[in-house]
Write a structure and sequence with these properties.
By secondary structure, the chain is α+β, with helices and mostly antiparallel strands. The chain contains 8 helices and 6 strands.
Length: about 210
């Protein structure tokens, strides 16, 4: 294929410190299978080299929702960094058992993940994501502002229940159904989402979905 898409490079944070890297890689693939049920990718997540994966989405809004849900669903010992690039995705040889691709979307995704890593190492230790578009008109600053706040919000969710409820809210589940699952009241779910920032995160993603960004 040769068309405009949102390519994402995914790598495991601190992979060399993990006790079981294979288990972590499988957990990431399992989480993205769950994500696919709600926000399908143009090209589902696939492992590439080392501790990296690649996935392609039709647009920015879908990619942000999918990667947000993935971060909320990862087990406690697993986290990932995301480089998002908008542009062309070109099949170099689609006949091979291993798909080989090139294109500006992948170049920008690689540059974006390098920038996320640089910022994480420098002054934003919570940062896990960055976006690069074709031009400033693609809304780079808006998307990166949201990614910065998203990553900080999720980083502050130290309690697994906070992430569980935020994931449920992102999926559109009712507070009553989530309350029944975890054995608390609906009002406790509401308070949890407000205090953790989960409710604001879902609202921000909903607003971006209606913005004029690719």
């Amino acid at each position: 294929m040769t068309d405009l898409f949102l390519a994402v490079v995914v790598d495991i944070v601190g992979s060399r410190r993990l006790d079981d890297r294979t288990r972590a890689q499988r957990a990431i693939q399992d989480v993205f299978l769950q994500v696919e049920a709600t926000w399908p990718a143009e090209q589902p997540l696939r492992p590439t080299v080392g501790d990296e994966f690649q996935v392609v989405y039709a647009d920015v809004a879908t990619a942000l929702r999918a990667t947000t849900l993935a971060r909320l669903l990862f087990p406690a010992e697993v986290d990932c960094r995301f480089g998002l690039g908008w542009g062309e995705v070109t099949d170099i040889d689609a006949g091979q058992d291993v798909l080989i691709q090139d294109g500006s979307a992948w170049w920008r995704a690689r540059a974006a993940i390098d920038e996320a890593h640089r910022r994480e190492d420098k002054r934003q230790p919570y940062l896990r994501s960055w976006f690069e578009g074709e031009s400033p008109q693609d809304g780079d600053a808006i998307v990166n502002a949201l990614l910065t706040l998203r990553d900080h919000t999720i980083d502050q969710m130290r309690n697994p229940r906070q992430r569980q409820l935020a994931a449920g809210a992102l999926l559109g589940r009712s507070q009553e159904s989530m309350a029944a699952d975890v054995g608390i009241s609906q009002s406790a779910v509401s308070q949890n989402l407000q205090r953790s920032g989960g409710a604001a995160l879902v609202s921000a993603l909903d607003l971006l979905a209606g913005a004029p960004i690719r």
